[in-house]
Inverse folding.
């Protein structure tokens, strides 16, 4: 049987050969040892997980290494999933061998829609499905030899975990953001200000005169977690509200492909916008990829400008503009279809001068507005923001007054304006904005040039092909009464216009953000219940900590109440609302037993992943979310990480503006309230690439099983039919998933680990090739043979002193691999380990001292075989805590290097020189080389530039 097909026969005939059977036995045995001895249990400085035997833990260097929370899929893992988990394990083992106390564990983000939908389809409780998926995933990950601390592993569906998720929600609910101190403060302090009169109520009444409902409503305007009627993505076909990320570009649900409508519903929101500036500023504290930082900055979208009031029939429509310098060029306005003032400004009939194209074919403005609103409600925000070639909208029949020119400007509604950004209203300056220009062309609206063109075009926008948009010019055609901007630069004009508006009380300089408050409720079953109840007057009350957790109740039907998918007027009825015994309760919240009604929405699955790094630190703490001593030790700020946070966080770049932004927000609130010392949850972020795989499609374009493909003469066939091959993601739906279990069965887990780490740079996507796995397998076989006899199982290492060539090969490898490990360059570390092992193969014998160093070098990458060889070399303790090799600089430096000698930029000689050679010595050698002498000839040498030890450049003539 060949090396590529190991099996049971080999185990019987060659028991000492490193093949699948021996690898499986070694791996299983060492996994049992690690589990029994708690090898990877990291001691805390305080609390239940502290260990007196560990000594002064607080004085020891430490590393907190994390993977992004996995969702426990019932389909199990494919070989693409563990890429990041293996990488963090390799780095964790490396850090541990460098003397660090390493916290490395893995939990499960277990609430969510997939398990709920399975429950809807089968009637099986989602906990059963989820627990089974977690058990399967744990078994798969254990087989890979991941060095996790199992005591710290958590699941978001564990009531003892989501008790603290609910507790954190209450901290946010019971807080407000004080703009003066730029931090969150307890809501009790705000109530005290209202009560003593130091902060007046909006209508001037005393706090004591307000009813409980009025107080509740007023505090809701300040709370960081609040309930409000807001525009949401309502999906009748699923019976739930969806987040923007759950809606496709064509306005349908990602799951089920149902239409999604905009609807106003009461929802829980998180006031993440209060932290916009801090979320931007503190990015400078983080060691994150610049691309991720840029995505967050763009998502938050901070822009400076002015708020301007346009008068419409006595009402003020406020717009935000970054270009108040162009106010004289505003020739019409556009409101979002959902804008609150639309109904009040619409007249009963069309004004006499109304252009027919503005009416949308309707007899009255009200009919036109109603029809267009229905059309816009069927589109997602993404669709509405796409720069479509055809601009749509209708005239409201109303005119606003331009505040600087006094001119009347028509007011339209159009779907390219969103309530979610700015004020939901814009002043349209078509001559200098591309979208406004296209809209104005479509509706024959006037355009006025107010920024002097610098590209030779005239000042008549009606002659232009597109808008002229620049900051590098001067203002023209912008003077009326007391305000003239003509001749000013854009920057000067912006300041002058803003000052003029503020002096008249019709505008002010301000900052706007693209970021919107976080929609935080779902109409689902399988999620964390809110710790909120309502009294008979509808006033909300936070449950006391003693009543947590509010556990997910049993219900007879897990399905949301679905409707006709096209019934945009329907409204949610949640699964939790069906358990009336749970919903309607009698509680004593401090003023006697009274009836209450529970909140029947659930939190989104983002909730549990917003803070899990804190529970990893202190999972057994039943008194606090985290002990300050433990949080300070693992996450606290240092000179190297001024904002604090986990030392390494590895995961996909797709979470840049969702999970990562949400987690940063929660952490900052907890910091403001004094619960954590760190201001950021994750100091260093690394985005691993993806493992891709070939996808095979039949003539219909449907994927066919990749494992059943036959290749003949460069073509691919499935069941006799020729199919097309393309690159794609790996997954169950594309029928190209490769289970890690099958690779472990055939080659062993160490081979899988080594192959995945050797495929290419960790941050780059790479294609899976099962045929290439054998290369890593053969390397481990050669390593084994260099130390253990395949015939007898005895050691074959020698006790000889290594010669200089061997020492140079060893320490060159140590120096390179150590640097690669620290820099997460695992692919090149593997290459250097193979190079060293090949040297030993050619040498013919392996000195013990070299064998031991080679085993330690490979240990983080292939820990099972390394532990086994370490034990066979006579060591009784696990190498998990052995010192990682350090290179001797005497031998790590190359014995000689090649120096290139150039004359007029052309290579004329190559010299083998010592790495320590000086510039003067190198220059002398180069000028004496016969090839160089011949090349120079009689030409005078004008200059010699020596860059020891690798380059000499000679200038002649």
């Amino acid at each position: 049987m060949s090396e590529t097909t190991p099996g049971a026969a080999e185990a019987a005939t060659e028991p000492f050969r490193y093949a699948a059977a021996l690898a499986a036995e070694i791996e299983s045995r060492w996994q049992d040892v690690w589990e029994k001895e708690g090898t990877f249990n990291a001691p805390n400085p305080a609390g239940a997980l502290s260990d007196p035997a560990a000594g002064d833990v607080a004085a020891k260097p430490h590393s907190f290494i994390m993977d992004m929370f996995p969702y426990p899929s019932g389909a199990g893992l494919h070989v693409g999933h563990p890429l990041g988990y293996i990488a963090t394990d390799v780095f964790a083992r490396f850090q541990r061998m460098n003397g660090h106390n390493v916290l490395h564990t893995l939990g499960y983000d277990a609430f969510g829609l997939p398990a709920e939908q399975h429950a809807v389809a089968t009637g099986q409780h989602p906990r059963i499905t989820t627990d089974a998926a977690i058990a399967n995933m744990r078994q798969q990950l254990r087989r890979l030899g991941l060095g996790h601390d199992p005591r710290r592993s958590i699941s978001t569906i564990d009531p003892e975990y989501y008790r603290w998720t609910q507790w954190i929600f209450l901290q946010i609910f019971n807080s407000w953001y004080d703009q003066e101190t730029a931090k969150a403060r307890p809501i009790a302090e705000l109530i005290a200000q209202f009560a003593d009169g130091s902060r007046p109520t909006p209508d001037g009444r005393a706090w004591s005169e307000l009813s409980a409902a009025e107080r509740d409503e007023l505090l809701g305007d300040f709370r960081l977690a609040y309930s409000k009627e807001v525009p949401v993505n309502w999906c009748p076909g699923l019976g739930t509200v969806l987040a923007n990320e759950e809606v496709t570009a064509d306005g349908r649900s990602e799951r089920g492909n149902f239409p999604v409508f905009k609807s106003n519903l009461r929802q829980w929101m998180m006031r993440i916008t209060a932290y916009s500036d801090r979320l931007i500023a503190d990015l400078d504290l983080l060691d994150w990829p610049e691309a991720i930082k840029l995505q967050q900055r763009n998502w938050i979208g901070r822009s400076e400008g002015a708020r301007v009031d346009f008068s419409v029939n006595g009402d003020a429509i406020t717009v935000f503009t970054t270009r108040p310098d162009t106010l004289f060029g505003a020739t019409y306005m556009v409101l979002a279809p959902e804008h609150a003032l639309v109904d009040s400004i619409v007249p009963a009939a069309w004004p006499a001068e109304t252009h027919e194209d503005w009416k949308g074919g309707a007899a009255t403005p009200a009919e036109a507005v109603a029809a267009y609103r229905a059309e816009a409600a069927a589109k997602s925000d993404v669709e509405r923001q796409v720069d479509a070639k055809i601009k749509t909208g209708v005239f409201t029949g109303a005119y606003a007054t331009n505040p600087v020119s006094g001119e009347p400007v028509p007011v339209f509604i159009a779907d390219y304006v969103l309530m979610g950004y700015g004020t939901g209203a814009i002043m349209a300056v078509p001559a200098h904005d591309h979208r406004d220009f296209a809209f104005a062309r479509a509706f024959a609206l006037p355009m006025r040039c107010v920024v002097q063109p610098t590209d030779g075009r005239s000042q008549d926008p009606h002659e232009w092909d597109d808008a002229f948009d620049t900051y590098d010019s001067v203002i023209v055609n912008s003077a009326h009464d007391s305000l003239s901007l003509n001749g000013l630069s854009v920057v000067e004009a912006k300041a002058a216009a803003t000052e003029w508006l503020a002096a008249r009380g019709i505008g002010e300089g301000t900052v706007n953000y693209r970021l919107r408050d976080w929609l935080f409720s779902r109409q689902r079953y399988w999620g964390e219940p809110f710790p909120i109840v309502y009294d008979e007057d509808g006033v909300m009350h936070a449950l006391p900590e003693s009543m947590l957790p509010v556990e997910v109740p049993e219900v007879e039907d897990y399905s949301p109440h679905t409707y006709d998918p096209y019934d945009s007027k329907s409204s949610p009825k949640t699964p939790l609302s069906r358990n009336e015994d749970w919903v309607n309760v009698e509680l004593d919240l401090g003023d006697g037993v009274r009836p209450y009604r529970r909140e029947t929405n659930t939190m989104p699955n983002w909730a549990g992943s917003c803070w899990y790094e804190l529970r990893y630190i202190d999972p057994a703490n039943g008194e606090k979310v985290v002990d300050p001593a433990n949080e300070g030790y693992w996450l606290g700020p240092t000179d190297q990480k001024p904002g604090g946070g986990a030392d390494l966080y590895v995961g996909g770049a797709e979470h840049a503006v969702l999970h990562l932004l949400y987690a940063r927000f929660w952490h900052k609130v907890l910091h403001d309230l004094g619960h954590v010392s760190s201001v950021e949850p994750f100091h260093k972020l690394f985005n691993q690439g993806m493992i891709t795989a070939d996808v095979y499609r039949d003539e219909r374009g449907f994927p066919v099983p990749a494992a059943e493909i036959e290749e003949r003469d460069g073509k691919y066939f499935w069941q006799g039919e020729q199919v097309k091959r393309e690159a794609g993601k790996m997954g169950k739906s594309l029928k190209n998933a490769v289970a890690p279990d099958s690779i472990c069965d055939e080659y062993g887990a160490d081979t899988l680990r080594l192959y995945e780490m050797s495929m290419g740079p960790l941050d780059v996507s790479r294609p899976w090739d099962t045929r290439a796995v054998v290369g890593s397998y053969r390397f481990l076989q050669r390593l084994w043979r260099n130390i253990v006899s395949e015939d007898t199982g005895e050691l074959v290492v020698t006790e000889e002193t290594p010669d200089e060539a061997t020492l140079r090969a060893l320490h060159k490898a140590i120096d390179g691999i150590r640097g690669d490990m620290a820099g997460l360059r695992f692919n090149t570390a593997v290459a250097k380990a193979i190079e060293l092992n090949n040297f030993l193969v050619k040498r013919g014998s392996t000195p013990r001292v070299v064998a031991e160093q080679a085993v330690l070098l490979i240990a983080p990458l292939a820990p099972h075989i390394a532990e086994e060889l370490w034990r066979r070399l006579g060591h009784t303790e696990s190498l998990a805590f052995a010192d990682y090799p350090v290179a001797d600089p005497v031998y790590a430096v190359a014995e000689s290097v090649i120096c290139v000698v150039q004359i007029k930029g052309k290579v004329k000689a190559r010299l083998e020189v010592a790495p320590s050679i000086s510039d003067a010595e190198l220059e002398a050698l180069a000028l004496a080389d016969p090839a160089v002498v011949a090349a120079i000839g009689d030409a005078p040498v004008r200059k010699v530039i020596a860059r020891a030890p690798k380059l000499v450049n000679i200038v002649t003539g």
Observations:
- The radius of gyration is 34 Å.
- The chain has six domains: 1-37+749-893, 38-156+607-687, 225-270+526-574, 303-512, 694-737, 896-956.
